[in-house]
Amino acid sequence: MNQEGRSLAWLVRWASICLCLTIVPVAAIHAQMDREAQVASLREARQFGIVIDIESVLPANRPGLDNTMWRETLASRIHEVSGRRPVTVTDPTREAHVYVHVNVMSVGASLVPFSVGVSFIQPGRAGKKSMMVATWESGLVGLVSPDQLKVILDSAESLIDEFAVDLAAAWSSN
Q1: Is the distance from CB of 132 to CB of 93 less than 8 angstroms?
Q2: Beta strands 112-126 and 97-104: pairing type?
Q3: Please, are residues 97 and 42 in contact by the beta-carbon 8 Å criterion?
Q4: Which of 37, 85, 105, 159 is the most buried (most CB within 10 A)?
Q5: Nearest to residue 118, comparing CAs of 66, 68, 153?
């Protein structure tokens, strides 16, 4: 590849990163409810599960991006912090659950941009219509090197801690 081709590829990579780092936080801020309303929404959470959704362009065999391991780790973390243990979700379209969405991209051999979003989704109403609604959410974006993918799980754990602290606060005020 000539110098011009490399420059264009590098520009496309950085533009992708900038776009990701700009749009995701703006969307999260726009959608986020105030903290008191989010905590209050957790008071009715009697039983809930946890659903992990990892979207990655990296090879499936990369260590640190395994759904089962993430579910066990994050469910344990919720239990440690809040005292509440998530149950198995059989139908996320009808059951309350913590939804962890991870998006991992690649912009060459040296950079791995990612985003992690955590939402608590539970049955709700919009007028007369029953539906599943996100009543608590938080998220972040980051950039790591390929040998530091554990940072992505660490980031998810910090968001889960935030959720679990709010869950414990909601239940202590009941």
Answers
A1: yes
A2: antiparallel
A3: no
A4: 159
A5: 153
**What is the H or E stretch that residue 159 is in?**
helix 150-172
Q: Which amino acid is at 154?
A: D
Which residue carries 């754990």 as its tokens? 157
Tokens of 82: 């809040």
| 63: amino acid identity, one letter | P
pTM over 0.85: no
Per-residue pLDDT of the chain (174 residues; tens, 9 = 90+): 566 656 656 555 665 665 556 555 544 554 455 778 888 788 888 899 999 998 887 765 566 677 888 899 999 999 999 999 999 988 998 999 999 999 998 877 788 899 999 999 999 888 888 899 999 999 999 999 888 888 999 999 999 999 999 999 988 865
Position 20, amino acid: C
